[in-house]
Design a protein that fits this description.
It is built from 1 helix and 37 strands. By secondary structure, the protein is mostly beta strands. Strands 1, 32, 33, 35, 36 and 37 form a 6-stranded mixed beta sheet that branches. A 5-stranded antiparallel beta sheet has the order 2-28-27-26-25.
């Protein structure tokens, strides 16, 4: 789900036609949310980007844009939340605000029916910590092409969502409550246990292809979770389809990863936790983890939260790269990545090995996503405003061409009174500049000049004081992409 989404366009200044250049600028947001004249309906959270001295020296090694799913730690206020793509400076590239009270997780790009798509989970998060919602799929023009829902009367949960090469979706469901006698575990005889459920659904038809229920395969005795009612003994929070077709899943409350046979659902092996079939080398054991991924036959990554509220196994959370020898059943720690701020998020998190072998670690509810050298040196960091989180933070290749026209608005410079044009195109990744046209009559606009794109919204002072204006988006070669509506100044 986190690769093969399509090329990211590296933009440079457009080749200048025989038109004068217009000095344009961007307005930096002054608070926790950005505001735009051309798109007043969009108020994405302000992203803070920080570069270490080593990051300045080494520069960027990997293409791609940052995929975030901003959400609130607590549902207060009227901030907008939804899937957000930003560049390396934290500047918005695309944002889609969701309805009040609806949150987003698992935002990424994927391949569906041979084409790049965006996909995410959206829904309501319950007090239980689980979600009830559905998956949304958009094409590269940002048109919705599918919604994916759980089958059999179940509801799709927030924790895991993967689009497969076969055009299916693998995801967790809202857990089922099952009565169970837990007296053999020194727990109440009349207990209620939450059973984790995985489904695979064909995206096009909605047909259920596979359902896995945890109590048929993983005993309650494997848990590390203190007793509660209902008892959330396993808490699956990631699913990945492996190269052999089987599944790798993470059980947060058992501190274990499981390889599941795709056809029968049986556990092929257990890595970590009380019932580990692997010898865990020094520093390799994890607890309360998220986002287990296999990067090659012998390399796994996982985010070791090391904390579940008051219960801590670590003083700070770690992004782990593990060497796994399946034949010898041995796990060795290759590298641990910890935040310079010594963050200890009790929930969420992600680890991604980039093409350059740098490592990107999302620190969940602590709002930060940090890029490291392969040996653990921090290079770049982006942070959401305090009180917001992103379930994961991923750098992925993406090229978007919106089906709608560029947006434009008029304004006046407060000091000089000169006419201003504000130009933006939400989701367009190929824009390098704007050709400005203006005139005294609506149907008689003439080109005035070229302005370089500056951030999400470019502010363009006009060299004259016309009555009407429009802008045309240009790519890096100076080719025209699409023109905005004509506005009155």
């Amino acid at each position: 789900m986190v690769s093969g989404c399509g090329a990211t366009h590296v933009l440079s200044a457009p080749k200048r036609p025989p038109l004068p250049g217009i000095q344009a600028f961007a307005v930096k947001p002054g608070g926790s949310t950005a505001a735009f004249h051309s798109r007043p309906d969009l108020r994405p959270p302000t992203i803070t980007a920080t570069v270490s001295e080593k990051g300045e020296a080494l520069g960027h090694a990997d293409p791609g844009l940052m995929f975030l799913g901003p959400g609130p730690v607590s549902l207060n206020g009227s901030n907008q939340y939804g899937p957000l793509i930003v560049d390396r400076a934290g500047t918005p590239v695309w944002f889609r605000p969701l309805s009040q009270g609806v949150q987003v997780t698992n935002f990424a790009c994927a391949q569906y029916q041979g084409k790049p798509v965006l996909v995410w989970w959206q829904g309501k998060i319950q007090q239980s910590g689980y979600g009830q919602g559905e998956a949304v799929v958009l094409d590269s023009n940002y048109r919705e092409i599918a919604r994916v829902r759980a089958a059999g009367g179940r509801s799709m949960d927030l924790h895991a969502l993967t689009v497969t090469a076969e055009g299916t979706a693998l995801f967790t469901c809202y857990p089922q409550t099952v009565p169970m006698d837990l007296s053999s575990l020194d727990m109440p005889r009349k207990s209620q246990v939450l059973e984790s459920i995985i489904q695979e659904v064909d995206i096009a038809s909605g047909r259920l292809l596979f359902e896995w229920r945890s109590l048929q395969h993983i005993p309650v005795s494997a848990t590390q979770e203190p007793h509660g009612e209902p008892y959330d003994y396993l808490h699956i929070n990631s699913i990945e389809q492996l190269s052999d077709g089987n599944l790798l899943v993470s059980g947060r409350h058992t501190w274990a990863l499981y390889k599941l046979e795709r056809q029968t659902g049986r556990v092929i092996w257990t890595l970590g936790g009380k019932q580990s079939q692997f010898r865990m080398g020094p520093g390799a054991q994890f607890a309360w983890q998220h986002d287990a991924r296999q990067h090659s036959d012998n390399v796994l990554t996982v985010f070791d939260n090391g904390s579940n509220g008051p219960i801590e196994t670590e003083h700070e959370s770690r992004g782990l790269v593990l060497d796994v020898d399946e034949q010898r059943r041995q796990v060795t720690l290759r590298q641990a990545y910890t935040s310079p701020e010594r963050l200890l998020p009790g929930a969420m998190g992600s680890v991604q090995i980039l093409p350059s072998d740098r490592v990107l670690v999302g620190f969940g509810v602590k709002s930060h996503v940090t890029e490291f050298t392969s040996d653990g040196g921090p290079l770049f960091d982006i942070a959401l405003p305090t009180g917001m989180y992103s379930y994961r933070g991923l750098r992925l290749p993406w090229s978007g061409s919106p089906h709608h026209r560029p947006a434009v608005a008029a304004g006046r410079d407060r000091q000089s009174g000169a006419a201003l044009v504000y130009a933006s195109w939400n989701g367009a990744t190929k824009v390098a500049g704007w050709k400005v046209a203006a005139g005294a009559k609506h149907g008689q606009l003439r080109p005035l000049g070229i302005a370089r794109r500056r951030g999400f919204e470019t502010v363009i002072p006009l060299p004259s004081d016309p009555r009407y204006a429009s802008v045309t988006a240009l790519d890096h070669a100076g080719r025209e992409l699409r023109r905005s509506p004509i506005i009155q100044l």
